[in-house]
Design a protein that fits this description.
- With 498 residues, this protein is an alpha+beta fold.
- Strands 17-18-16-15-21-22-23 form a seven-stranded mixed beta sheet. A six-stranded mixed beta sheet has the order 3-2-1-5-14-13, sandwiched between helices. It has a two-stranded antiparallel ribbon with strand order 4-7.
- Strand 10 and strand 11 form a beta hairpin.
Amino acid sequence: MLKFVAAIDQGTTSTRCMIFDHTGNVVALAQKEHQQIFPKPGWVEHDPLEIWDRTQEVIQSALTKASLGPDDLAAVGITNQRETTLVWNRQTGKPYYNAIVWQDTRTDSICNELASHGGQDRFRARVGLPLATYFSGPKVKWILDNVPGVRADAENGDAVFGNIDTWIIWNLTGGMRGGVFITDVTNASRTLLMDLRTLSWDSEILGILGIPESMLPDIKPSSIVYGYAKGALEGVPIAGDLGDQQAALFGQTCFDPGEAKNTYGTGCFMLLNTGLKPVASERGLLTTLGYQIGSQPAVYCLEGSIAITGALVQWLRDNLKLIEKSADIEPLARTVEDNGGMYFVPAFSGLFAPYWRSDARGVMVGMTRYINRGHIARAVLESTAYQTREVLDAMEIDSGVRLTRLKVDGGMVVNNLLMQFQADILNVPVVRPLVAETTALGAAYAAGLAVGYWNSFDELRANWGKDKEWEPRMDGELRTKLYSGWKKAVMRTLNWIE
């Protein structure tokens, strides 16, 4: 049996390649950041050719670090920043425009125009999503409407759309020379264009948005052999594809209804497995696909998406220069006992769940002369925990499931102060697994299952191990007081953009 499975994790700020063994342990990791492009306020872009270059670099680097070749790999899985939208020419392989990132708000007027007939939930019954700048469909429409020549090329079949998973898989499998043009159900469920029940593109919505169906990739299960790699991974089956948050759910082995995980990355994303039926949300959550393994029925989720969490720490580092590196935030926040009465609501690109308000903008409130750098750092960390609480409250009411513990992962979970405060403000235990990079692990699991490297969910569950658990320690009265202060602060962000 081949010894290893690889995963390519193409995230919002960086791309990494990780190689895992059969027990789910990391054998090698290579990571490279890519440029964040901000052409105008509210606009966020990435260079797709730079992302593809970084992908090739980290693949080569990970193989070199582990002293492995493609013959040592059973399969490779892909996971990606979701909703980030790319249109390229299938004859030349050249993008028409930079990738428009999920955080980008330029499609605000398109979404408002669409909502003027039927409201923000116009398509929600079919696609599980509100009309919001977050999703791919309006971004595709923007490119078709604003980039010269794209619409004509789309009509004749040359211009094609994909989220980043589609772009990576197409390039990995040969690009212009026979590249496989697919996406999986989880990524397709983030476009605003896929019917949740049929798992196929919705031709009526495509018509309303003016998107030719010929532009769109084929929708496949999350775990199945799509094709075979060329180049550094020559001959390795590409066999897993999951949006990053669904990959983390899979890596955390949340295979049963009622199991949930929260990923702390650039944004924060809580997913709750709701089983084989989509659950409609009354409280601003998204109904989305969890995963689909081969020919088995698809599994659905409720998701609460928060736009800015880890990105707020980066902002403190890069824009305010309050810290030198992201890890410095915890010692700085520990220099004070509490938040000093101040709150920081990071509505930099509006508010996501459970509000969906693109008119909101960030605020710091409750400031007095007493406030210092430590209080600001602490308020930054606490904002992540408060936003998570808002999502969890909505999730419990929508699903009728009471969460008994929260599995956590992602870059911010190394921050012990944040994890303790998270347990305190939720009043449930918070559990960090041994492998905190569960996004890449989930993609590896999906790929490994497709080729028989792993044979069952039980095998994957046996790999999951607990690293640390935080029990709630906060007095109930204080919890209530702090949280109501947060709610007041959120109200101050609304209606800022006319």
